[in-house]
Input
Amino acid sequence: MADLSTVLYLILYGFYLIFWYVFELGKEIRRKVYGTNEIPLKKARLGRIIFRRKRDAEEIARREDFVTVDDRFIDKSALKNETWTVYSLDKSGVVFVQLPKKLQEYTIDKYPFIFIPMFEEAMRTAEMDLDSFLSLADELEVDYKPPKTLFFTNTARCASTLFGSMLQHENQSIVIGEHSSIISISIGHAENYWSEEEVEKLLPALLKVIRKGVPSDKLFVFKGASTEVKLVPFISKLMPEIFHVFMFRKKGIVSVEKMLLRDPQQLLLAKIYQFSPYLTTLFGFVSACEGRFYRELKPKEPKEFAMIVYGAPYYHYKKNQESFDFDVVWHNELIQDCETVLKPIFEKLELPLDLLATAKSCLNRDSQHDTFLSQSAMAGIQATEMTEEIKSNLRRYAERLQMEADVSGLYE
Output
């Protein structure tokens, strides 16, 4: 059973959402009165942020995170400026936010999760319809050679932020950590919100907009969240020049369970999801990240939910293994002998090998320092007891997710 504080927090957040929808209805009425309900061709609607609220720092970005008032219309070309980036997208349109710095300055070594400053530092918003967004993206790489690009996917809690930091080198590469607008496409497609045709239009446009302005002679790395591995087949088909690498951690279920226990609301919403996906996603989308396997395997205990979050990316990796340009990066091997692991990756991506020593030095610090997943933040969270019944269920899940015995660690 969820504790009372968790339930009360969700109820309070529910009141915020009700306020947000009522406020938006008032804005729509005002727009119709003043004849501004339609965004003019080649324009975007500018918004002033008067309040911001997310259910949790890890929750997927969406337009409900900001309470805004209409400012004016601006030319859509203004969004080509590198301080503007996509915050969220849905069938109503695309929401951009303007940051105090260029997006490419929010590198993973300083900002492990870029969705945090995108929410906290957003100065104003701009909204446009999906067709205008696609048109804007088409203009970005006409007279511009895009940078060499790596799409890096992984499971949760596998030191992927550490690996991303090892790829970040000034004047050589730019690594951006977990741009949650990409996550929303992955979850949306898995939940039948976005059709395959829509993903094939929106995903390349989104990647182009995110990497706009990155110098052609640098390596650009999208360091994704675990659910983004589902998008690899689309990117391989539509943007075959992009490289792909996948990272995983053997015997990593306990670490993932602790991550889920950090946010008891997410765990409660994941349980509700099995009965009402619609109700769950009203509060956010992170609890639906592996909805397909939640529906199929029907987990009940925290370890069972954790096993799905942990193992599902591995399933998708194995299913589409031919789309990846490198062998899987194993957590234990990266920690124990990072230079051997990194050397073929550096060579293929044309990063100077003399940077390997700098990359190795990343082992000396917590790559997620000062975040909700830092070592200090996670230190006090205890995993639940492993019973024989739970272990039996986890083995069944592991078999379904095509995890070998030495990978799951459940037969020791």
